[in-house]
Amino acid sequence: MGTVRTVEVRPVDPADAERLGEALAAAYVAGEVIGPDDGYAQDLRDVAGRLPHVVAVLAAYDGEEVLGGLTLTEAGTAEAEVAVAGELEIRMLAVAPQHQGRKVSLALLAAAEELGRAGGYDALVLSSLPAMSSAHRVYQRYGFERVPARDWVANWDPEALANGTAPTLSVYRLPLGEDS
After folding, report:
1. Which residues, in sequence order, are CB contacts of 75 under 8 Å at separation 6+?
2. Of 44, 123, 159, 161, which sits with the fewest C-beta atoms within 10 Å of its C-beta?
3. Taking a C-beta distance cutoff of 8 angstroms, is the pair 3, 27 a contact?
4. Closest among 137, 72, 80, 73 to 106, alpha carbons compared
5. What residues does 97 pair with on adjacent strands?
6. What span, in angstroms and rounded, lies between the C-alpha atoms of 99 and 68?
7. Is the dihedral of CA 37, 40, 41, 45 positive or negative?
8. Distance CA 87, CA 107 (A)
9. How far is Cα 139 from Cα 145, in angstroms, rounded to an integer?
């Protein structure tokens, strides 16, 4: 009988920041969301650089192994893309390719929800590229609702913006209030 593997989500140990960054970048590259030399890969890898500026960076662990993670940020910060006052935004959610299919993303979402409730936030919010259809299914199964009125056009590629080929990101929201 195989070893029972467990997933524990907690704030990333700063000593694990580099390993988490590599896992996040590997997931985005393996999922063909970005290329290996894309500037966003460097942003994903820079976990230590964002730690002082965000609410939290959560990592999923199996023992000492880093499985994946996410960043939580507030409206009005440089890291936030879609959060409005009272919302906690999930950014850079990814699971290392070799650990996908273990429900790690669900454990990360549950930990983000718990942190959001404890912090008195009204909702969790996130945005996602059109190509991330499997992630969209995870968000909807978890209880996030699509908010098409808040969808936004990616603004990081001026040429794509100019020629109309920039992708539109879908916004998802999970209310955290008592009546949710």
Report:
1. 83, 84, 85, 86, 87, 89
2. 159
3. no
4. 137
5. none
6. 8
7. positive
8. 20
9. 8
Cβ atoms within 10 Å, residue 79: 17
Give the tokens for residue 14. Answer: 């700063």
Tokens of 56: 């939290």
The pTM assigned to this predicted structure is 0.89
Q: Which residue has the tokens 């590259």?
A: 29
Q: What is the pLDDT of residues 80-121, one digit of tens each?
A: 999 999 999 999 999 998 898 889 999 999 999 999 999 999
Q: Which of 23-32, 39-48, 129-138, 153-162 has the lowest mean pLDDT?
A: 153-162
Instruction: State how far the Cα of 8 lies from the Cα of 12, in Å rounded to an integer.
Output: 11
- Residue 92, classed as helix, strand or coil, is strand
As to burial, measured by CB atoms within 10 angstroms (0-12 exposed, 13-18 middle, 19+ buried), residue 150 is middle
Q: CA nearest 16: which of 56, 73, 59, 80? A: 59
